[in-house]
Amino acid sequence: MSTQTTETLDKKTIETVKATVPVLEKHGEAITTHFYQRLFEDHPELKNIFNQTHQRAGDQPRALANTVYAAAQYIDQLEVILPRVKQIAEKHRSLNVQPEHYPIVGEYLLKAIKEVLGDAATDDIITAWGNAYGVIADAFIGVEKGMYQQAEQQKGGWTGYRLFKVTDKVEESDEITSFYLEPKDGGELPVYKPGQYLTIKAEIPGESYDHLRQYSLSDAPGKPYYRISVKREHGPVGKPDGIVSSWLYDKVKAGDSIPVSAPAGDFHLDDHTHRPVVLISGGVGLTPMLSMWRYAQEKQPERKVHFIHAARNGSVHAFKKEIEEAQPGTAHLIYEMPSEEDTKQGLYAREGYITLEWLKTVAPDNAEFYFCGPEGFMRAVNHMLLEWAVPKERIHYEFFGPQGVL
């Protein structure tokens, strides 16, 4: 996507779309919620692609509303939102979204705008948004085409879903279990970038549609297997537990096969720089960090790496043994509520929470910072780094689920 993309939109279209920015800021989420409702009513087969848990929680409509708002705001300079386009395109490729899906989405998005805004959605506005959507959709299709080609043409690569055999299932903590996966066809594995994820297709008996979930690869690339480490998701009171995590824990066993798409994701360690790196994780957010950390140890042993992990206590802290084997001074554990056993073992460096004052004592300010975890945790870390005046280009993070805004 470049400035040339907008040359296909005339001045009137650009002005009309930009004029809808205040309306989208106010009604965007109502539009996208209505959009998904209508889309799934008429095309229930698309539930095989979209995460219905995120739909019910409102996360997906909110993420789409943010994207539509950004597209309207920067319709005359779409290169500004190119990073978001690439993030979404990576997710689309991992979910096997195809070009033929875009006209369907466009049709129902325009219907939702018209039905939610009523008379305020004039013919000029609908026409302008139709033209703008066509240009944006073409840009996504073009970016994703390149991603599909790269995924297929790399050594050991594939597109769509490939069956992987679960060769081992290892309990890492009270809440996290690792699954070791190897191709059922015995073929080669493509090398992935540390921090990327897999999409698994859960074909659960009794469910009317498939469930797709992304899980970070939790080991360094180059192994004869892929490893994902999954947290069992317990629902709040009165709500069901996570459908896919419960299935993986309770039903999937060693020897079973699972359809998997090729590794994807634009959140990964930059190994083209020798700048120090600080990895900060909360809870199961340690999985992509562990991949980055192990990779840096193996491939960039001269690079200074600090791994900071926050957990409730030792019982829910996965991969303790791997972290214990780290070089002294490189791993720092923070337990919110350490148990007596945790205190006796003396594993953790700090009780409570990460603070900026403490962070400055263990992390160099000239580092690249990567962080992942619950949204509130990431918001706090991002605020600390900005307060510390760390340049935005050296701050990297990933959401588990639809892309949010910190």
From TrEMBL:
It catalyses: 2 nitric oxide + NADH + 2 O2 = 2 nitrate + NAD(+) + H(+); 2 nitric oxide + NADPH + 2 O2 = 2 nitrate + NADP(+) + H(+). The keyword Iron applies. InterPro entries: Cbr1-like_FAD-bd_dom, FAD-bd_FR_type, Flavoprot_Pyr_Nucl_cyt_Rdtase, FNR_nucleotide-bd, Globin, Globin-like_sf, Globin/Proto, Hmp. Its cofactor is FAD; heme b. The keyword Isomerase does not apply. Heme b binds at H92. The active site is at Y102, E144. Binds 1 FAD per subunit. Residues 156-406 are annotated as: Reductase. It comes from the Bacteria. Pfam families: FAD_binding_6, Globin, NAD_binding_1. Its EC number is 1.14.12.17. Residues 159-270 form the FAD-binding FR-type domain. FAD binds at Y197, R213, Q214, Y215, S216, F399, F400, G401, P402. It is an enzyme of class 1 (oxidoreductase). The record marks Y36 as: Involved in heme-bound ligand stabilization and O-O bond activation. Consists of two distinct domains; an N-terminal heme-containing oxygen-binding domain and a C-terminal reductase domain with binding sites for FAD and NAD(P)H. Is involved in NO detoxification in an aerobic process, termed nitric oxide dioxygenase (NOD) reaction that utilizes O(2) and NAD(P)H to convert NO to nitrate, which protects the bacterium from various noxious nitrogen compounds. Therefore, plays a central role in the inducible response to nitrosative stress. This is Flavohemoprotein. It comes from Halobacillus dabanensis.
